[in-house]
Amino acid sequence: MSNEIQSVLTESRVFQPFSNLVEGAAISGMPAYQALCERAEHDPDGFWKDLANDNLVWNTPFTQVLDETNPPFYRWFADGELNVSANCLDKHLGTPTADKTAIIFEADDGSVTRVTYKELHAKVCQLANGLTSLGYSAGDRAIIYLPMSIEAVVAMQACARLGIIHSVVFGGFSSKSLHERTVDVGASLVITADAQMRGGKTLALKPAVDEALSLGGCEAVRNVIVYNRANSKVDWVEGRDRWLHDVCLNQPGTCEPVAVNAEHPLFILYTSGSTGKPKGVQHSSAGYLLWALMTIKWTFDAKPTDVFWCTADVGWVTGHTYITYGPLAAGLTQVIFEGVPTYPDAGRFWKMIQDHKVTIFYTAPTAIRSLTKAAETTPQIHPRQYNLDTLRIIGSVGEPINPEAWMWYYTNVGRERCPVIDTWWQTETGGHMITPLPGATPLKPGSCSLPLPGITAAIVDEVGEDVPHGKGGFLVVKRPWPAMIRTIWGDPERFKTSYFPAELKGYYLAGDGAQRDDDAYFWIMGRIDDVLNVSGHRLGTMEVESALVAHPLVAEAAVVGRPDATTGEAIVAFVVLNQSLPDDEQGRKIATDLRNWVAHEIGPIAKPKEIRFGENLPKTRSGKIMRRLLRVVAQGQEVTQDVSTLENPAILDQLSQSF
Ligand code: WT7
């Protein structure tokens, strides 16, 4: 870790904001940024109150900004009432935005569908009416397990319109993961599709729902609504299953939005922690939406003429905030893409930017790194082959972007005239926290730069004291902010201990290590806990370990991450089998079985890249697995540390061969 810290802080390149972007920006120039920060610091109540009044449409205005009588269970605008869907759709009716394209949907096969705001509003209302006719109402929970589609946005917005709390499960998660979430959230409704189309393939979705619901504990699910995406043959449970088009048939295209309390949960989204099962991160209605909209305006400096494209899946928080809620609340035209960046070839993103005249592009470092590799080997799909002149801002999210990837993105995609906006945030923060502003912040490749106004990010030691610039520590947020996680669904105790440990003075603990440089810029160093970040996806080592030990052949497993040039981190699993050490051929076969098993237990994103077998794991004499040592072994480095406390030093040799 210390080497890494050295290398980033020797980065000396600085890119000043482009004058064409400074002019007319929502936050124009550093003095404007600093003025907002100062206002937020000296008059936080006034700062947040004005933002909430100026940017949200309220049914009942709030009188109190922040209620902090029961920390860390903060409440924002808590006596106000509004409807999130009305703030994303109805707000635009009767304005020129009503007839503007809201969504340009490009399917896997390249066909394009457009909907205007007016049309989107009608679709959302029809589904909301259909859900009402099935007896659903505010406070019910719905699992959404859909491919990237206009329908996914419609489903989420229809829930929001009625105050139904949605929990979207990424289509790449297994039936087991789906089951776990359905039970935990107590869902009474599932909205899914027959299948999804990705990379030219039709991948079934409905069977995973059928399997999940058959596992028990999901008896509350009364209906499964199925979007017919691919005309696949599906099993059907009479009385439970309904086609989406039937639910919407003959429903009126208007539906009164249900005003909910500002603190009413808008959604629950599961994410991995260092221990235990995935946590259901609960977000509010008003505070969350306010920040989704403010960050679209500030971070992306969005204008009515922009064509916005966030490549994330709606199954992750990025897709919630920067597809379903933020861009619609801002009245933008946005692109939604069903497929994968490498189909029919790895020029797909660049071609889509060209075809749809995208002006703001937001993607993940892992995508940039894999497309770099592809472009360097296949010149025909290099971004320089495409007309990317419409781009004005290019963003990054999900993991640290290394300076090389940053420079490639800046040079080849941004053509040295678009700022790379490296946004640091988390499922729990609801929206961007630390990020450059296109019209204000000088950029340094690899740094997410400075906190947004109102966000009191800091770096502290184990007792919550600020550490000096240049020194590493825990990334915390000192004061509450409106879009913060409200609790872990069903587990307020875990919420407290995970995010507000007693030693840290009540600060929000992000779980990342970081440091600031002499200009106070933040450099994120990666997680401080047993959470891995593989291709921008968060996974707990313990989740993968539990999946592995559930396999009949596995006696014991330990999982660590190691740096990977494309995926950021890669999973290395150390496995002790219930049988003698396998030979090469057997080892390869068992490794394949175990990978498929993990894919079935969690999802393909959790498949270990490497599996290593040993007769035992390196343990201290008291029986504790020495993970630090495993991380060294996983990186193929020589073990230089003292292994005298190790019960069985010979084991390290066995564990060096990977399958
Ligand atoms: C973790 C959160 C943010 C939405 C997508 C991921 C890492 C995220 C950055 C960035 C360095 C980053 C952190 C964070 N991370 N963005 N720009 N630079 N690290 O959300 O799944 O909740 O993961 O992703 O480690 O804690 P998530």
Q: Your description of this structure?
A:
The protein contains 20 helices and 30 strands. The longest helix is centred in the last third of the chain and has 18 residues, at 584-601. 31% of the residues lie in helices and 21% in strands. Helix 11 packs across helix 12 and helix 14 (365-377) crosses helix 15 (403-413). The chain has a seven-stranded mixed sheet with strand order 5-4-17-16-18-19-20. The chain has a five-stranded parallel sheet with strand order 7-6-8-11-12, sandwiched between helices. The relative contact order is 0.10. The two termini are 26 Å apart. It is an alpha/beta fold.
For this entry, what is the oligomeric state of its chains? single chain
Task: Provide the structure class.
Answer: alpha/beta
Q: Give the cofactors and ligands.
A: 5'-O-[(S)-butoxy(hydroxy)phosphoryl]adenosine
Radius of gyration: 24 Å
Short recap of the structure:
With 659 residues, this protein is of the alpha/beta class.
Layout of secondary structure:
Layout: H1 2-9, H2 19-22, H3 30-42, H4 44-55, E1 66-67, E2 75-76, E3 81-82, H5 84-88, E4 101-106, E5 112-116, H6 117-133, E6 141-145, H7 150-162, E7 165-168, H8 175-185, E8 189-193, E9 195-198, E10 201-204, H9 206-214, E11 223-227, E12 241-243, H10 244-248, E13 260-261, E14 267-271, E15 279-283, H11 286-298, E16 307-310, H12 317-329, E17 333-337, H13 348-356, E18 360-363, H14 365-377, E19 393-397, H15 403-413, E20 420-423, E21 457-460, E22 473-477, E23 487-488, H16 492-499, E24 508-516, E25 522-527, E26 531-534, E27 537-540, H17 541-549, E28 554-564, E29 568-577, H18 584-601, E30 610-613, H19 627-634, H20 651-654
Parallel strand pairs: 4-17, 6-7, 6-8, 8-11, 11-12, 16-17, 16-18, 18-19, 19-20, 29-30
Antiparallel strand pairs: 1-2, 3-13, 4-5, 9-10, 14-15, 15-23, 21-22, 22-24, 24-25, 26-27, 28-29
